[in-house]
């Protein structure tokens, strides 16, 4: 367990958490469909309560993702949160709005009313997904910062992170994540809700949202694979190299295979759900596929001598898994703690199965005194 092994090990764990987070964003995607798939208050309450059984998984995964980044690559945490704090504050505020909305949406005597909380959920679903996708896109396109001698960060843009939305590639990925979340949510509704009308409407939404998702994702991949990437040279300097991320795919064939399997899984789940009548398993094929695809993209961004959080205003301030990581002692200690991860994942699987033993219907919501 030397330093280099631990740095790669922790980047793989970060990649796994990132993949799980993107999959669980189906909750946010479902919130944006409250007035599209649902046409009555009963149908809307059914959708909210279907999502309400899972929203804490997404929130917790986001917190763990941030915590793991802080512990294993603290220089990224201090640079990004210290410089691009407006972007992160927008994301966090959206998730706070979500938590408040699920808690008080139908509570007796709430001041804002049910419709207002529905709007909050939609805001969380739209802004939260797009911003997260755009921030991840900047792992490939770069950010405007400079590090001082004591690793103090100077952010070279007055927008403090919001500028990620001004980059075409970042915006393509942000919108791709948005439409992906809506696609996964529709697949989830088909699997989790016992309601023929909602099933058919969800099936249509799978088609309507998967098409822009695929187009936007291909546009993002074309931009980064055919453009320049941030490479670590032999003298440890950072330079822009043509086709760097494309070369990463060629030079890491196992990771490329994982990416292809993930993409095939996503497309299989979508196509089968559209073409096959009464098929409800699309969420599992597409969900597992997107986790694998995101893991592969994170590895492309951080492995093979690549800067995972590059600076386009000061190349040598770019962050890599080598210069941004914690100490050997910290990484090793946390590596032992991480061995408990399978137990946590097993508990999540158990809790998910317990909540999804049977499909939810409108009567379940009406009979539940703790319904959202």
TrEMBL record:
<feature type="transmembrane region" description="Helical">
    <location>
        <begin position="164"/>
        <end position="185"/>
    </location>
</feature>
<dbReference type="Pfam" id="PF02322">
    <property type="entry name" value="Cyt_bd_oxida_II"/>
</dbReference>
<keyword id="KW-0349">Heme</keyword>
<feature type="transmembrane region" description="Helical">
    <location>
        <begin position="206"/>
        <end position="232"/>
    </location>
</feature>
<keyword id="KW-0479">Metal-binding</keyword>
<dbReference type="GO" id="GO:0005886">
    <property type="term" value="C:plasma membrane"/>
</dbReference>
<feature type="transmembrane region" description="Helical">
    <location>
        <begin position="12"/>
        <end position="37"/>
    </location>
</feature>
<comment type="similarity">
    <text>Belongs to the cytochrome ubiquinol oxidase subunit 2 family.</text>
</comment>
<feature type="transmembrane region" description="Helical">
    <location>
        <begin position="283"/>
        <end position="303"/>
    </location>
</feature>
<dbReference type="GO" id="GO:0009055">
    <property type="term" value="F:electron transfer activity"/>
</dbReference>
<keyword id="KW-1003">Cell membrane</keyword>
<dbReference type="GO" id="GO:0046872">
    <property type="term" value="F:metal ion binding"/>
</dbReference>
<protein>
    <submittedName>
        <fullName>Cytochrome d ubiquinol oxidase subunit II</fullName>
        <ecNumber>1.10.3.-</ecNumber>
    </submittedName>
</protein>
<dbReference type="GO" id="GO:0070069">
    <property type="term" value="C:cytochrome complex"/>
</dbReference>
<keyword id="KW-0813">Transport</keyword>
<feature type="transmembrane region" description="Helical">
    <location>
        <begin position="333"/>
        <end position="352"/>
    </location>
</feature>
<keyword id="KW-0249">Electron transport</keyword>
<keyword id="KW-1133">Transmembrane helix</keyword>
<keyword id="KW-0408">Iron</keyword>
<dbReference type="GO" id="GO:0016682">
    <property type="term" value="F:oxidoreductase activity, acting on diphenols and related substances as donors, oxygen as acceptor"/>
</dbReference>
<feature type="transmembrane region" description="Helical">
    <location>
        <begin position="57"/>
        <end position="77"/>
    </location>
</feature>
<keyword id="KW-0472">Membrane</keyword>
<keyword id="KW-0560">Oxidoreductase</keyword>
<dbReference type="GO" id="GO:0019646">
    <property type="term" value="P:aerobic electron transport chain"/>
</dbReference>
<feature type="transmembrane region" description="Helical">
    <location>
        <begin position="252"/>
        <end position="271"/>
    </location>
</feature>
<keyword id="KW-0812">Transmembrane</keyword>
<feature type="transmembrane region" description="Helical">
    <location>
        <begin position="116"/>
        <end position="140"/>
    </location>
</feature>
<dbReference type="InterPro" id="IPR003317">
    <property type="entry name" value="Cyt-d_oxidase_su2"/>
</dbReference>
<feature type="transmembrane region" description="Helical">
    <location>
        <begin position="83"/>
        <end position="104"/>
    </location>
</feature>
């Amino acid at each position: 367990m030397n330093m280099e092994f631990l740095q790669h090990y922790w980047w793989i764990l970060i990649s796994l958490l990132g993949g799980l987070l993107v999959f669980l964003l189906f909750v946010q995607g479902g919130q944006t469909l409250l007035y599209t798939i649902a046409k009555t208050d009963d149908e809307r309450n059914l959708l909210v309560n279907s999502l309400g059984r899972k929203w804490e998984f997404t929130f917790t995964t986001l917190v763990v993702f941030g915590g793991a980044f802080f512990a294993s690559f603290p220089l990224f945490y201090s640079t990004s949160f210290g410089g691009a704090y407006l972007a992160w504050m927008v994301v966090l505020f959206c998730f706070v709005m979500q938590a408040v909305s699920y808690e008080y949406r139908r509570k007796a005597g709430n001041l804002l009313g049910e419709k207002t909380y529905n709007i909050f959920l939609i805001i969380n679903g739209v802004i939260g997904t797009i911003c997260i996708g755009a921030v991840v896109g900047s792992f490939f396109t770069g950010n405007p910062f400079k590090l001082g001698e004591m690793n103090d960060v100077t952010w070279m843009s007055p927008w403090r992170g919001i500028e990620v939305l001004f980059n075409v590639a970042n915006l393509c990925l942000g919108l791709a994540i948005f439409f992906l979340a809506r696609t996964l949510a529709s697949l989830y509704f088909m699997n989790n809700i016992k309601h023929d009308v909602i099933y058919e409407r969800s099936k249509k939404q799978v088609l309507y949202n998967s098409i822009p998702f695929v187009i936007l994702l291909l546009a993002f991949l074309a931009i980064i694979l055919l453009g320049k990437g941030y490479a670590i040279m032999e003298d440890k300097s950072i330079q822009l190299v043509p086709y760097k991320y494309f070369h990463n795919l060629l030079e890491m064939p196992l990771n490329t295979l994982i990416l292809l399997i993930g993409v095939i899984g996503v497309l299989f789940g979508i196509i089968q759900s559209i073409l096959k009548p009464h098929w409800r398993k699309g969420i599992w094929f597409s969900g597992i596929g997107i986790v694998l695809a995101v893991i592969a993209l994170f590895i492309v961004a951080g492995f093979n001598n690549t800067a995972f959080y590059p600076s386009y205003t000061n190349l040598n301030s770019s962050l890599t898994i080598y210069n941004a990581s914690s100490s050997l002692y910290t990484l090793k200690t946390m590596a032992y703690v991480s061995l408990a991860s399978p137990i946590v994942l097993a508990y999540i699987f158990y809790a998910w199965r317990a909540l999804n033993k049977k499909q939810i219907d409108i009567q379940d919501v009406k009979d539940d005194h703790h319904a959202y």
